[in-house]
Amino acid sequence: MSFAVASKIARRELSGGLKGFRIFLACLALGVAAIAAVGSVRASIEAGLGREGAVLLGGDAMVELTYRRANDAERAVLEEISTAVSEVVDFRSMAQWPDGSDRALTQVKAVDGAWPLYGAAGLAPDMPLEEVFAGRDGRPGVAMDPLLIARLELEIGDPVQLGDGRFVLMAALTKVPDNATAGFGFGPPTLALIDDMVAAGLIREGTLFDAQYRLRLPPGADLDATRAQVETELAGSAPRWRDSRNGTPQVRQAVERLGSFLVLVGLAGLAVGGVGISAAVRAYLDEKTETIATLKVLGAERATIFTIYALQIGALTLLGVAIGLVLGAGLPLAFAPLITGALPVPVEMGLSPKPLAEAALYGFIAAALFTLWPLARTQDVRAAALYRDAAAGAGQWPRPVFLVLTGVLLAALVGAAAWFSGIATLTLWAAAGVFGAFLLLVLAGRAVRRVARWLAGRRALRGRPTLRMAFASVGGPGNEAASVVLSLGLGLSVLAAVGQIDNNLRGAISRELPGVAPSFFVVDIQPDQIEALTERVMGDPGVREMERAPMLRGRITQINGRPAEEVAGDHWVVRGDRGVSYADELPEGTRLVAGEWWPAGYAGDPLISFSANEAEEIGLGIGDSMSLNILGREITGTVASFRDVDFSTGGMGFTVTMNPAALAGAPHSWITTIYADQEAEAGLMRDLSRTWPNITVFSVRDAIAQVTGLMGQVAAAITYGALVTLTTGAVVLIGAAAAGERARTYEAAVLKTLGAPRGMVLANFALRSAILGAAAGVVAVFAGGLAGWAVSRFVMETEFVFDPVSALVIISGGIAVTLLAGLAFAWRPLSASPAGVLRARE
C-alpha cells in the first residue's frame, strides 16, 4: 500500500474522535506547558534585565574600588572617558534613635549630587532629592526604607543617628533605581549624601565600604575598548568593571540556574507523562488489534501498518504540543501582575519564541520516545488475531532497529536538555537519576505484584476475604500495579527529594550552625577603640568568648608572576576581595599544616600564611609568590606556611595572613567575634552601638534567619515545579483507573452475584488502591532519600540527616491520591446491574 492510502486510513480512523487519547493529550500538554512556562518567565526576566541594564547598573558602565575612594588622578581618567560620573559609596551601619533606645542594621547608599544618572528614586512624600539632603533645623536629611522606618518606629521629621552624625528623616525610600548592584544585604537601605557620611565618621580609611563610579558614556561608545582603557590606566588600582550588558550578573546567573533546574524538573514531569502516553497508545492499539489483523489479511505490509498509526500518533502529538505551548505561553501572561509584583527585578512579559521552541522540541522527542515501542508492536499482530483473543505482540521485544531508535531518541532528549540548560553535568546526573528511578520503580511494581500474590495465598488471610481479594487483585495479571507505582512513584520521588534537601538545608543553617557560631560580628572598629571595646566585652558576665583581629581587604592579582585567574581558574579566592589580616605570633588555636611561622618581630620581605584547603584547590605550594592589591598598593609576598582554617564554624578565619611589617602603615580596622548567652545579646548590642556609634554590629541569628528564608523561597520554587510532576502522575493514575473501570465493573458484578455486599466490594477497591499508593510512597521515599543524600553529600557538602516527617507525608500523600483516584472510578461499577453486566459478556 502507498503512503497516500496509509494517510487516508489514518485520517478516517481519527475522524471518530479523541476517545482514548485524552490522557495522552493531557500528559503531553502538561509537560510541554510546564517547560514552556518556566522558559517564558526566565526569558521575560532576562529581557527585562537587558532592557533596563543601564538603570539597574546606574550607568552605562561602573568602575568599583574596594575600601577606598578614587584619588584625583583616577577620577580624572573616569571623567575623561565619560560625559558624567556619579559616585556611590555603599556600606553597612547602625541606624538608631539619638538616645540609643532602639537601633537596626541598615545598608547605607551614600551618593553625590549627580546621582542617579538613570532612573529616579521613589520618595514618599514626593520631593526633590536636594530637599531630602538639605534636611531641616541645621541637620542634614536622609531617606529610609519603609521597613526600617517601621522597625525603628520613626515618623517623618524624627531625628535619627548614623555613626557620630545626627540626621532628620525626610522621606520614605520606596524605590532605588540601581539597587540591583547592591547584592545580598543584611539591612534595609538608607539614602544619604557622601559628604554627610564622611562628617559622621562612617567613611574613612580602614572602614569597610565599596566606592562605585557610575559612568554615562558618549553615544556609540565601544564598551570593550573603554574597559580596556580603564583597566590599563588604572592597572595599579585593581578596578572592577561592569557595564550595562550585564549589569546584574548575580541576578542573571541565579535566574539562569534556577530556571534551568526547573526545566529539568519539568522534564521529569514529561518523563512521568511518558508513562501515561505509552499506556494510552498501547491501550488504543490493543483495541485496534482486529483492525490491524484485517489489514494484514488484505495484504498490508509491516511498514504500512506502522505508517498508519504513526501518522495518527504524530497528528495527536502536534495537537498535544500545541495545547501545551498555548498554556505555557498564556499562563505567564495571565499571571503577569502577580509575577512582576513578586520579583525584585524588571520583567518584560511577552511571547518568547526561543523557550517555546525548546519546549516543543522536548515534547516531540518525548512523544516519539514513549510511543515508539507500542507502535512497533503493531507490526507483530498476526491475521490469526481475527479468530482468537491474541494481544498485539504481548511480551515481545521490538525489533533491533526500534531498540536503536529508542537509544537515539533518549540521547537526543538528554543532549538537548544539557545543551539548552547550560549545566551539562547536572543534566546528566538528573537524567541518570530519572533513569535509575524508572528502573527502581519498574522493579518495585513487579515486586509489589509478586508480594501481593504471595500474601493472597497465606493462611493468615483466610478469615479476611476482603483483604485477600485486594492482594489477589493487585497481584493478578493485567492489574495497573506497574503503571500506578511508576507514574505516581516518580512524581512523589521528586517531592521526596525536595523535602529531604530542604530539611537538610534548614538543618545545616538553623540547627548545626548556631551551636558553634558567634552571637555577633563587630566590624569597623578603629585601632584606637579596640582595647576599650575588648575590656567592655570581656567584662560582661554573659560573654563566653571573644576573638579579635586586624582586617584589611585585598584582591589576589598574581600567583608566581602570572594573573591569578590563569592559575586558579574561577576559584572563589581570586574572584573578588578577600579578608587579609596580620599577626606577629601564631594565633591561639591555629594549626599549621605545612611550612613555618615567621619569627616574632620579623621585618624582612613580606611572608604569607595561606588557608590549606584553598591552597590545595588552586595548586599553591610553599615558596610560591603571591601579589595582592590592598587599597591600591601592590604587595608581593612569599607563601611561608599553610593553616587549617575552618570556615564552617562561622568564627573568625582569614584566607590570607601576613607578617605585620608587610602591612605597616596601611589604614585598617579591627573585626571581632563575640560569643554570648542569648539573654545577654540585646543589652550588649545596645551598649556597644551607643558607646561606639561608628561600629557596625551584625547579629548572626538575624543573618541565619535571612539565609534560611532565602533557602525556603528557593525550595518553594522547586516544590512548585515538582508539583507539576506530581500532577502529571495523578493524570496518569486517573487514566489507569479509568482504563480499569470496565474490569472492575465485571468484578463487582461477579462478587455481588456471589453475595458480597456493596461495602465489601468498595472496601476491596479501596484496599487495593491504598496498597498501591503505599508501595509508590515507600519507593519514592527511598529514591528521594537517596537523591537527597547525594545532593547533601556531594553538592552542599553537609551531613545528611533523614527526615521521617517528610517521608510520612509522602507515603500518606501516595495513599490519599490513589484512594481518591480509585474510588472516583468505583461508583459506576458498584451501581451497575450484575445481570446486565454478565449478560453483556456472554
UniProtKB/TrEMBL annotation:
Main location per the UniProt record: membrane
Membrane topology type: Multi-pass membrane protein
Pfam families associated with the record: FtsX
Domain of life: Bacteria
Signal peptide: none
Keyword Disulfide bond listed: no
Subcellular location: Cell membrane
Swiss-Prot/TrEMBL keywords: Cell membrane, Membrane, Transmembrane, Transmembrane helix
Ranges where the ABC3 transporter permease C-terminal domain occurs: 265-377, 723-834
Transmembrane segments: 261-285, 306-339, 359-376, 397-420, 426-448, 717-740, 761-787, 807-827
This protein's name: Drug:proton antiporter
Species name: Sinisalibacter lacisalsi
